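Retro notes (design track)

What went well: tokenization of the new backbones is finally stable.
What didn't: we kept losing track of which sequence belonged to which structure.
Fix going forward: every design gets posted as structure first, then sequence, in one message. First example under the new rule, 466 residues:
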């Protein structure tokens, strides 16, 4: 017998499937320099909505300034958007660790330069009871793989990289060095499409040169670049040629800069050659093209559909961090720059190099799995790659090396006095060995012949892709 027109259910009522909402996870990011602050904050901002995010700036001799932090924190999601207007003050390492001891989060992202990352990971692993999951990684382009990056972060539970090529290279390197691989894939935050081109009213009138503090490192090479930029500005008075810097006088960067570009500009530089700071996204919004040797800004430009040029006048090498761009379609030289020829990325290059589908990313799932292990008390500590002896004195040396004058401990001073001559002697021995050992010549990496490049001439007032 039916009741009110309802179908009989034989005592069973139809129910909607119950979906248990994911557990809220508290995740704290620790950042220090300008590039690590930008990367760490934007990586966290890409995490799922049930992650409750916090961010702490670690006080080190190279911590980003407030203006650098404001630029780094632009464009974050609602959980971290307040940081751009009110960047947090740097906090000493001991106070950071004490805060984690008092209120342990589910996970900590250690987004710091190598020596600081090693110190913080070690401090958290040793001193925080029921320690959080330790996440770490590298900002920007991390190919070729570097053993030092693995070595200093080996104790972290998960190491985030940003391309299939990087993950393969670091996995092979870790295994060769006797370290268990622990690498995960995430789309580089700056390589995400902004969801459409700029407004039609946007004036694109700038050729943006993304300056790097140490690439190239030679003063004369940097002066050559300034000369090419000046000639580009003279040949194209309709363009603003912008030297985009990441630091002003007195500010620190992830890599030390011995010859800042603003100091190299000639007195007779054309008026349309300018030096500017600020967020790269703002510059790309009005860019005709982006030029660099190997800056990660190239990936930002590609994501926004802006033509780009990676200068190969100084060669292609590990030191220049530009091997990844071989066969990308973006390689060129000073003549291309001055003539206004900029490249479009080759589609066949993209999947393996930072532009994989978002469905390939596994860092969140793997971080969640590690947090579940922590919930169950089953999180296993990873061993350090460092095999050297020394105990407390060695740790004091590493702390002094990471924090410099910010470490005022007596043991740190003792470690410095003992360790400095030892390190000097070791370096001298290595130099001698390099001189006496035969060095196998590495194959030279070269880009495609000039005739096979796909330049994109940009004429007066022409919009990219137009």
């Amino acid at each position: 017998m039916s009741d009110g027109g309802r179908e009989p259910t034989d005592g069973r009522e139809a129910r909607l499937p119950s979906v248990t909402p994911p557990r809220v996870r508290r995740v704290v990011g620790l950042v220090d320099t300008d590039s690590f602050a930008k990367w760490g904050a934007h990586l966290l901002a890409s995490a799922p909505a049930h992650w409750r995010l916090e961010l702490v700036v670690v006080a080190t001799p190279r911590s980003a300034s407030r203006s650098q932090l404001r630029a780094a924190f632009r464009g974050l999601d609602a959980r971290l958007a307040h940081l751009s207007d009110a960047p947090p003050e740097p906090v000493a390492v001991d106070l950071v660790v004490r805060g984690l001891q008092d209120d342990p989060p589910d996970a900590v992202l250690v987004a710091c330069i190598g020596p600081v990352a090693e110190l913080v990971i070690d401090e958290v692993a040793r001193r925080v009871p029921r320690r959080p999951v330790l996440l770490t990684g590298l900002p920007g382009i991390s190919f070729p793989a570097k053993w030092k990056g693995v070595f200093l972060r080996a104790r972290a539970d998960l190491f985030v990289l940003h391309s299939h090529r990087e993950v393969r290279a670091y996995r092979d390197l870790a295994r060769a060095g006797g370290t268990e691989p622990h690498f995960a894939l995430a789309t580089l935050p700056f390589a995400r499409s902004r969801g459409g081109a700029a407004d039609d009213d946007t004036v694109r009138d700038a050729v943006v040169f993304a300056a790097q503090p140490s690439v190239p490192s030679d003063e004369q090479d940097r002066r050559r670049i300034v000369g090419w930029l000046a000639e580009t500005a003279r040949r194209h008075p309709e363009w603003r040629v912008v030297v985009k810097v990441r630091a002003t006088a007195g500010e620190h960067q992830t890599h030390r800069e011995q010859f800042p570009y603003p100091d190299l500009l000639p007195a007779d530089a054309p008026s349309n050659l300018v030096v500017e700071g600020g967020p790269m996204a703002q510059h790309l919004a009005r860019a005709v093209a982006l030029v660099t040797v190997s800056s990660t800004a190239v990936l930002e430009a590609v994501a926004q559909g802006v033509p780009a040029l990676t200068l190969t006048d100084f060669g292609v090498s590990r030191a220049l961090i530009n091997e990844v761009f071989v066969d990308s379609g973006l390689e060129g030289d000073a003549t291309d720059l001055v003539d206004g020829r900029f490249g479009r990325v080759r589609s066949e290059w993209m999947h393996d190099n930072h532009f994989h589908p978002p469905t390939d990313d596994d860092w969140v799932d793997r971080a969640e799995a590690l947090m579940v292990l922590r919930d169950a008390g089953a999180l296993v500590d990873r061993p350090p790659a460092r095999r050297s002896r020394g105990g407390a004195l060695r740790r004091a040396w590493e702390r002094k090396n990471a924090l410099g004058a910010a470490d005022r401990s007596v043991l740190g001073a003792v470690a410095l006095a003992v360790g400095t001559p030892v390190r000097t002697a070791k370096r001298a021995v290595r130099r001698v060995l390099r001189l006496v050992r035969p060095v196998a010549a590495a194959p030279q990496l070269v880009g495609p012949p000039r005739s096979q490049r796909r330049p994109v001439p940009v004429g007066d007032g022409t919009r990219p892709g137009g």
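Added context from the reviewer: The radius of gyration is 25 Å.
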